[in-house]
Write a structure and sequence with these properties.
heterodimer, A: 382 residues, B: 47 residues, mainly alpha, 2 helices, elongated
Chain lengths: 382, 47
């Protein structure tokens, strides 16, 4: 009897010890994992050039966003002379790093002599706070800059479900288009937005409010897509911007950049290149560059894949004729994709000044594509 | 909706904690502990 009691007591003591052990283990793992996840919510620092005239928030144009996960910085560069008013968006899809890095590169370099340029580098701020599930993507990628190595967030295509949940089975966007449920969190399906809609629709509405309030004439949305996707190395244009896009394409081809022209399909609703033009009447353009790191054929996702853009699977797919862009052993590095985006922006601005001299935008300090190719994009970051 | 979600996660996390305390097998406790971490992260809306 006594022996049985002793055994029970000893078993209880062992169990109590293991419960304490596991409680401490749970606390340690939770704290470590929590810190890692929470680090994704810290914004990357951006160091604007001396040409910056105002730093605002998207909530300044739509106050209900204030202090929430959809609020995001807006960088305004006003020139001393009147001219065109341009909006440039990066980070609509935070898993498309060339759009984000191109916007940051502009913010850190440009000075305006005429006109106004407004840049939103993290259009879907919530998308930067998490990574796409089941992709194994790196949380960050880094670039060598004159002041040392600098890291940037690689986020998700869509808004964080912690901020907007649950997804509907079928998403009906503000223009009545039926889409897969996950698209409810895709900023580039949510235009022209809704003031009382879900978070993503409210962010889209705030961008539209900015366009209307700032009297934007040309909007450029910077994106990337997988090399197997047909709309790639492309200028997607609203019919309001057809002349502008065609002239820019000729300029780009003369400079050695192959860009295709893609008209915005009138029945594909909710996208920036459609709704900015339809709802606000502006010239709307979307630029696409090829990004192997979010394609379906990619190998192991890694920081090197994001920055260097080399992937043997894509090389093989190119040899089999399955891609819409050339893809060799040199890959398509981030510096090339940023160079393409900035060349595209420059060509669009040049064409705008030729088509509408009153809307000329003159920019100094604009990094040249050849220099980005030669020195890397990090050389133009602080 | 968020309150309903958090209530569900709290309920399941409490169950797991109770099972952790009652379970005699060390390895089953280890399994429960790992699942509990995910529920706690969800409970605090970290991930």
């Amino acid at each position: 009897m006594l022996e049985e009691k002793m055994q029970n007591r000893s078993a209880r003591a062992r169990r109590a010890a293991s419960v304490i052990f596991f409680t401490l283990l749970i606390a340690a793992i939770t704290i470590l994992a929590g810190r890692e996840f929470l680090s994704m919510r810290r914004d990357d620092p951006i160091f604007p050039s001396s040409g910056l005239t105002a730093r605002r928030l998207l909530s300044d144009y739509f106050p209900p966003l204030k202090g929430g996960p959809g609020d995001t910085p807006v960088f305004v560069f006003d020139g001393p002379k009147k001219g065109g008013r341009i909006l440039i968006l990066g980070g609509t899809h935070p898993n498309e790093p060339a759009g984000y890095v191109s916007a940051v590169t502009l913010i850190e370099n440009i000075r305006i002599a005429a006109g106004t340029v407004i840049v939103i580098p993290r259009a879907n701020a919530s998308g930067f706070t998490h990574s796409d599930p089941q992709e194994g993507s790196p949380q960050r990628f880094s670039l060598e800059t004159p002041s040392g190595r600098r890291s940037f967030r690689l986020g998700s295509r869509v808004t964080n479900p912690v901020h907007q949940w649950p997804d509907p089975a079928i998403y009906v966007n503000p223009m009545g288009q039926e889409l897969a449920g996950v698209e409810a969190r895709n900023l580039n399906r949510a235009y022209p937005g809704k003031p009382d809609g879900n978070l993503t629709e409210r962010v889209a509405f705030a961008v539209m409010e900015l366009i209307r309030h700032e009297k934007i004439g040309l909007g450029i949305d910077l994106h990337e897509s997988a090399p197997e996707y047909p709309v790639i190395n492309a200028i997607v244009f609203h019919e309001n911007a057809a002349d502008l896009a065609a002239m820019a394409q000729m300029d780009l081809q003369a400079d050695g950049f192959e860009f295709r022209l893609e008209a915005s399909p009138p029945k594909l609703r909710g996208l920036s290149h459609r709704e900015w033009g339809d709802a606000a009447g502006i010239k709307a353009v979307l630029l696409e560059t090829p990004n192997a790191s979010h394609g379906r054929l990619k190998g192991k996702p890694s920081e090197a894949l994001v920055v260097e853009g080399k992937d043997p699977n894509y090389e093989r797919a190119a040899k089999l004729g399955r891609l819409f862009v050339p893809f060799g052993p040199e890959g398509i590095p981030l510096k090339e994709r940023v160079a393409r985006h900035l060349a595209g922006v420059r060509a669009l601005l040049k064409s705008l000044s030729e088509l509408e001299p009153d809307n000329t935008v003159t920019i100094g300090g604009f990094p040249a594509a050849e220099e980005i190719r030669a020195r890397g994009v990090g050389a133009f970051l602080k | 909706m968020r309150i309903v979600y958090l209530a569900m996660v709290l309920y399941l996390a409490a169950h797991l904690a109770w099972m952790l305390a009652r379970e005699k097998s060390f390895w089953k406790q280890a399994g429960i502990a790992l699942v509990l971490v995910l529920f706690i992260l969800r409970l605090f809306l970290i991930q």
